[in-house]
Structure formats: structure tokens, C-alpha cells
Amino acid sequence: MKTKILFSIIIALSSTFLFSQEKVADKFFDNYAYLKAAELYEEAVKNGEDSEHVLTRLGDCYYNNSDSKQAAVWYGKALEKYSNKISPEYIYKYIQTQRSLKNYEEADKWFEKFKERQDNDSRARKGKDNNLHLYEKLASTAGSYVKVDNLPINSNYSDFGAFVNENTIYFASARDTENDIYKWNNEPFLDLYQGTISTTDGKKEVSDVKKLSFEGVRRDNLHSADAVLTNDGKTMYFSRMNVGKRNRARADKEGTVQLKIYKATLVDSTWSDIVELPINSDDFSTYHPALSPDNKTLYFTSDRDGGLGQTDLYKVEIKGNNSYGEVYNLGPKINTEGREGFPFVAKDSTLYFSSDGFLNLGLLDIYKSDYIKDENAEVINLGAPYNSGYDDFAFFIDSETNEGYFSSNRLDGKGSDDIYEFTIYECKQKVKGVARNSKTLEPLAMTTVQLIDESGKIVGEITTNELGEYAYDVDCNKQYKILGSKPDYKDALLALETTDEHEKVHEADLLLIPLINDNEIVINPIFFNFDKWDIRPDAAYELENIVSVMREHPNMIIKIESHTDSRGSDSYNMKLSDRRAKSTRDYLYSRNIAQERIESAIGYGESQLVNECSNGVPCTEAQHQENRRSKFIIINDEEN
């Protein structure tokens, strides 16, 4: 009979607490307690509440916990019922869960719908041809911290193509305003420059910028660029306009001045013995030279016949004495129907180049490939911040120091093209602390500490050691939340904002408030509306602490007391407090706390005041508040 009565009570109460459950779940969700929130949301669904808000929040609970399988279930239910009005962001999240589960056909189906709804979304535009995941990679720095600065030596004109040998930087620039204007871009003709790199107090600087000294070469009205040096610094390859009689630019039959690669030798700080390479032609351009680490292979750009696109990348063996092997196209793994150019080979043999033929962020982007080690290697877009919506090209990196340069005509530059210097480093910081009992300050071992990123996703979970200690390595320039939880304690939540200072340590102790104090479960005051005894969402949120403690102690038996202050008549306060005590009890029943575990739920009105604020005694609101309380007294807690 007792069971039937209890069942009837729970059925009757389910609709009463439905709205409350959703609001309580929202509060847990907002405090990153996703599993508790999911439990309450799912209970609401069982009771017939399947609103868009509840279903998508359930998806978010699991999504933020990296549970793609369950997240997909609830996002799927939301899309099934609300597909025409649901936020496209949830379509996107559903696609991500399907990709995670390798359900590519389902992901592609919804990606088409995402594009229909979000045709102006960059993820839709750049994610075509099943490359949504690649766009995500493009927009990130893959966990590395990349510091990018506009090089101070840039001018108001075009500067690009930095190459470093020892402590000297070589680059092309149109800064010489004494040259004639090149009509193509209304800037002076390009010439080659060098500067000295020095480091003062850890800061790298470039000084003493000047034109390269060439022996017996006419320089005005001729573009020169793309300097690359051999390892010993004594031989330079560079690009220059085709020259004819009297060292003037020479056009072909169609009036085009082709580009050619030349070689020069350093003699007493002057570049002499300039020789045109035999791989050149008056009928097509050959330019952008790059050397392999052993200086035995020359890579370059050309628009010669037989290529795959507008310009392709090629290679040729350097045999010595101005003798070269057969020219080879790098093939379809590297070259496309578009433009490929600006090759560079790092010390680790990684090939870098620019292209507009692969998936990109706009115009020319910088890519890398292990082609030299494996001709079937995939091409990878370097992504931001190297690439932008503008032309990004002429990449150089010292793969031993992870420092380098690239060129771009992005909007924040000084001239039409600028050189940007960058440094790559794994900027990491540490956060550490001790979980403590907030009342006694004793360390709390076996406390669960979760690290939560700024999107709300749990990115780490550890438990404290016997000294209550925890520690996390965190990324720079990020915002985190740190959530500490332990049975019989209230959660502790801290905010952390990291900086760009490498290896900085943040101290963050977690103070957890104990829920059990002697023979009582202590929670924050439960508030009721005036003259009401309905359980409000904020009260339900607090009562969930009682639920958690009683679940942790399955044999615990309690009694509930409700007390009021002295204002109002004695009889009114007695009745009101009793109704509130029983409403509190009924909420615990609705959360599947067995009836026999609550010995009693009694209201005592103003009969058990904790201070002198009886009838007629003037008291402050704070003093009256001390008397308005609910008590959860532990009668028995025998463990199995």
C-alpha cells in the first residue's frame, strides 16, 4: 500500500516540478556541472518536456564532455523535431559529432542543409567538397603560439622575400624612389637589399639596410628579387628580368618581359661573375629559386609548356660549372590548375610554397609538404596567422629555431607587400593549487578537478593527491574555469585567464564547502515566494545537494524541519512552515529518494527561534533571516 501511495505522489508531483527541473538543470549547466544537468534534462524529457531548449542543451552537455555518441543522439532528436527553426550552430555541432563518429554520409547530408541556411558563413564557403574539417584546421594555430610582427625595416613600397644566411637578411624592395616607376603597380622597380641581424636583450633587430653590391650590372628599370644563398654564403641565385643588348629589359614577340634565374659569386663583398642559368628561355619565365639543404637541387617556379597550371614548381639537379640536369615538374601532388610559386626548402627538407589552387583562406596561401621525403605526401595549408584573405607568400623558416619570415599584402602592412617575422613556440603556463575544506582548511584528497575551456568544454579531469594538490598545464592567452567537486561537498568554481608569458605559474586553491556538519546536512537557505510553499528553481538547485548526499549515503535517514521568524501570527507561521517542510520532502521524493528515508517533515513555525527576535522585539532583517531556515537532520547513517 505504501508503494502505491508513493507512486501516486510521484506521478502527481511530476508536472509540478517539470518547469523547476528545467530551470534547475539550466543552473547546473551554467555552472559547468554537465552530468548533473544532463540527468535533470533527461528526467524532464521522460516527463514529456522535449522543447528545443531541453534537447539542444542535452546535446551540449555531452558535446562539452567529448561524448560525441550521446551528443549526436540529442542533437539528432532536436533536428528531427525542430529542423526548420533550430539555430544553424546546432546543425554544425551535429555535423561535427557525425564526423567524429565517422558517419560521413550523415555529416555530408546535414552539411548541405547547413550551407542552405548559412550560405554567408565562411565554414560553408570554405568547407565545400567535404573539407569542413580542413577549414577548422586553417583557422587555428594547431596548439602552437605564433608571434607575428611587421618587420620594422618595411617601407611604404613593396618589400618581400626574406632569406637569411648567418646574420644577414636578404630581401627585395621597391624603396629606391630614384628608379623609374614600373607601370604595372606604379612603384619603383624592385632591387635586392641586405641587412644585419643582431640581438640585444633578447630582442632581434635588423639594421644597416643597404643595396647589394653587384659588379658591372645595370640596375635601374630591371626587377631583381628572390635571393637565395648556398650554405657557405658565397653563391647566390636570384630572379631578374630578361636582359638584352646594353643590359636593358628584353621583351618576347608578344611584348612580355620574361623572368630568368641568375647566379652570382661573392668576391670581396661584391656579387660578381653573374651567369644566366641554362634552364632559362626567352619564351617563358623561370624564377623564384630555392635550394635543397645540401645545395645539390634547385627548385623554382615556371610557366613553361607542359605544366599543369598557370605556373608550376619544378626541380633540377645542380652538377657544377653551370651544368644542370634534366628539369622535372613536381607533379600533381604539388601543382594544380592554378598558380604555384615561391618554393622554399627548410633544413629539415620540408617544402614550403604558395598556391591559389588548393583549399585556402583567399588568394595565395602558404602550404607545406613532405614531398622531398615522400612524393605522395599530402599538401597542408599552414592556416592562420601565416595565411589571410590576401596574398601570403615567400615563406622562410629556420626549422631549428622555429623563427622565420613570410610576405603578405594584408591590410595592416606599411606598403603594398610587407615582410612579417614570426616565432613559433609552445607557450604554456601552469595552474596549481590545493583543494581544501573551506571551514577547516584541511586538504581534501581525491577531489575531482576539471579544467573547462572558454567554450564550456571539459578539456581535463584529474583527482587531487593525498595532500589535496592538483596541477594543470594550460595554454597561453586563454580563459578557463576550474571546477572542484567531491562527495559531501559543494562544488568550487574558479575563473582563470592566462597571459602570453611563457611558463608563468598561477596559484588557485579550491575551497569546497562541506555539506555535512556534525549531524546535519547544511545547504544555503531555501527561499519561498510570499505566502507560498512551492519549490522555486533556486530552492531546487540547493535541494539537489541533499539529493547528492543521500545518494552518496544510501542508508542515511533524515528528518526535515522548517522554521520561520516571529513576524506574523503563531498559528499562521506554524501552518506555513509545515506546508513548506512537506513540499521540500515531496521534492526529494520526486528525485527518487525513498519515502522511508525521510523520517518526518515538520514545520515548527516560530517556536524554535535561534536568537532573541521573538514577538514584539525589534530586529534587523539579518537577525530575522537567522530564524527563517530549513534543517536536514541526520537520524541514522549506518553504512553497509
Main beta-sheet annotation: 5 strands, antiparallel
Shape estimate? elongated
Number of helices: 11
- CA radius of gyration: 36 Å
Oligomer: single chain
- Helix proportion of residues, in percent? 10-25%
Amino- and carboxy-terminal Cα gap:
27 Å
Question: What structural class is derived from the secondary structure elements?
Answer: alpha+beta
Instruction: Report the portion of residues in β strands.
Output: 25-35%
In total, how many beta strands? 36
Mean pLDDT: 87
Unreliable stretches covering 5 or more consecutive residues: 1-15, 125-142
Which labels suit this protein?
disordered N terminus, 5-stranded antiparallel β-sheet, 640 residues
What does this structure look like?
This protein is of the alpha+beta class. Helices cover 24% and strands 33% of the residues. It is built from eleven helices and 36 strands. The strands form nine sheets. Strands 12, 13, 14, 15 and 16 form a five-stranded antiparallel β-sheet that branches. It has a five-stranded mixed β-sheet with strand order 32-33-36-34-35. Strands 1-23-22-21 form a four-stranded antiparallel β-sheet, with no helix packed on it. Strand 2 and strand 3 (168-173) form a beta hairpin. Helix 2 (34-46) packs antiparallel against helix 3 (52-63) and helix 3 packs antiparallel against helix 4 (68-82). The longest helix has 29 residues, at 2-30. The chain starts with a helix and ends with a strand. Residues 1-15 and 125-142 have low confidence and may be disordered.
